[in-house]
TrEMBL record:
Name the UniProt record assigns to this protein: MutL C-terminal dimerisation domain-containing protein
Residue stretches making up the MutL C-terminal dimerisation domain: 1-73
Domain of life: Bacteria
GO MF: ATP binding
Organism: Staphylococcus pasteuri_A
One protein family per Pfam: MutL_C
One GO term of the biological process aspect: mismatch repair
SUPFAM superfamilies found in the cross-reference section: DNA mismatch repair protein MutL (SSF118116)
InterPro entries noted in UniProt: MutL_C (IPR014790), MutL_C_regsub (IPR042121), MutL_C_sf (IPR037198)
Length: 80
């Protein structure tokens, strides 16, 4: 768990993607709560996935997975 939760804004379509795939994110150790229609609160984030800070690492991960999904190239193995 993080000492202080990190709030990050997402556009609506990425927020929907996150909500529909929340169980996969939880398997990765990423625990988020939806705050409102355009932001989430990151409660847990594995140190091994942190490239820089939590917010930028999370943004990079969700952007990559979202883009793979949009191109119909996202497979369950991508979550592992």
């Amino acid at each position: 768990p993080l000492l202080l939760p990190v709030k990050i804004e997402l556009d609506k379509i990425k927020l929907q993607f996150l909500e529909s795939n929340q169980s996969y994110f939880e398997r990765l150790g990423i625990i988020v709560n939806v705050v409102n229609n355009n932001s989430v609160q990151i409660r847990q984030f594995p140190a091994l996935l942190r490239n820089k800070d939590v917010a930028s690492s999370f943004s990079q991960i969700i952007d990559t997975l979202f883009n793979l999904n949009e191109a119909n190239e996202l497979k369950e193995a991508d979550w592992l």
